[in-house]
Amino acid sequence: MQKGKINIETENIFPIIKKFLYSDHEIFLRELISNAVDATQKLKTLASMGKFNGELGDLTIHIELDKKAKTLTVKDRGLGMTAEEVDKYINQIAFSSAEDFVKKFKTKSEAEQNAIIGHFGLEFYSSFMVSEKVEIFTKTYKRGGSTKAVKWECDGSPDYVITEIDRKDRGTDVVLFMDDDSKEFLEEHRILEMLKKYSRFLPVPIQFGTEKVWETVEGEKDKDGNPKQIEIEKPRIINNTDPLWKKKPSDCTDEDYKKFYRELYPYSFDEPIFHIHLNVDYPFNLTGILYFPRLKKNVEVQKDKIQLYSNQVFITDSVESIVPDFLTLLHGVIDSPDIPLNVSRSFLQSDASVKKISGYIMRKVADKLEELFKKDRKSFEEKWDDIKVFIEYGMISEEKFYERAEKFALLKNTEGKYFTFKEYKKHVEKTQKDKDKKLIYLYASNLEEQHSFIRAATERGYDVLLMDGILDNHYLNTLEQKFTDTMFRRIDSDTVDKLIGMEDEAPSKLDDKQKEEMKPVIERNIDTAKFTVTFENLSEKELPFTIIQPEFMRRMKEMSALGGGGMMGMNNLPEQFNLIVNTNNDLVIRILNEKEDKNQDQLIKQLYDLALLSQNLLKGEKLTDFIRRSVDVLS
User: Fold this and answer.
1) What is the distance between the alpha carbons of residues 293 and 566, in angstroms, rounded to a whole number?
2) Which end of the chain has less Cβ packing within 10 Å, N or C?
3) What residues does each domain of the chain span?
């Protein structure tokens, strides 16, 4: 027996470890299993090199829970340790690292505290975050000499005891005696939850308890003539030791990728659009599979779906530091041994190898998209509505991605036709230039609500883009900055000819005096706080009243609502519209000539409500009044 006191100056080292080592105490299980996996993998490596000639046998790591004894045990059949190695690695190196950690910890900010954890050999001591006592039972794989099995125990003080024990098999058992604050870790469902989170793809089998499954009895039938099945109990293996991302892309089928997606996201009912298999070994090691999911309207809901691993050990699903922000919308797995397990987000953001990984992933995504576009444009166009959010987000936020994406990014018009940037410029440059030779790109944000405006434009031979995506307001600004002498104008932000800037005013049937006379008549029947009356000399065929919202104010307000790009307080401004009165429409002339105020008001209200209806602005009681008034007019 060997008793001792660890030579440390800080007597309160364990309380500090218990409270501050990790913000999330459940990490202890990941660390212990990671150590067990490491010991097992190293033994397999020695065997492959001929430096271990014994039988490897079953290398499954066992997790055992004894609620009555208040213990949780992690067992492996890996390298094991001699008494000397226990003294060196547990008592000296790990504790001196812990001591150094505590000294530095006290002088650091919270962010720096998290950042330095990964630089100390503290993985084993994470067990004291949840335990009042820890025991280690271990026997080395080595033969001869002082290779007897030993037990190490410590009750969370600097005192420890090492004793020789009888143990036949090599490997290590770590037994945690849970403290009263950590009773949750004595519940089977809680341990199972943690194992599925951190251990589902570890390279060594992990067993926890048993599970009941149905098994077919060969050659026997049930009473209905179907193959007979019986319920049996078998060991519950937590993990898939050979996940798809570790295989060569050439060895994987489309069905393999779909099956793996279902394994990652068992509660997702949508199949991904396509995938990208990452596989690089220089200048860093990286494997993984990224999927393009079918996005819902809420972009934020789609984030935190990429799982980050280090040698198949789960680290996090918050990967903003590892991949460009726009690619956090993707789903899938990234695995790199070059990313340490226990580091802070701020460390990842400043780490040079992480930045290289981020750039590589972005290039691979761009390569895949360009390949799909060139290989099968028709199929690419069919996927466009589902993938354009990724591409637009990337082009808005990453200059290097924009440079790649402008080759395959598409614009879609209201007729459902797709164009590259160059193709669309050629398509409209002869018909949609204003007096200053600037290209005017007309667009609609809603096919149904803006139908009358779209028709007015297409009847004049103009083309209208459909920009109805959740990011399109920001995207339009980006394109306006990139395109030369080009402006985007929403189809309902003015009359068509004014939007193009080529209006040639027809002679007005109303002179200035008549307009002045008519303006207060109209204003007494409308909401003047929201609508400004303007008179324009339009074609006789144009509507008598048209409601528009100026491009600048509307776009800034919408961008502000989406987040970013808007002016401070823009969301709080009231909606502002222009009511355009066509001075050449016969109904407008009729209003002027009508002698009875009552008849004037009825006609104005009817035309005003029709204009509101065309912009989906007529609702509630006002819509009810309009319907009743329309029936009265018809009667």
Assistant:
1) 29
2) C
3) 2-207, 210-237, 246-376, 409-500, 512-552+570-634
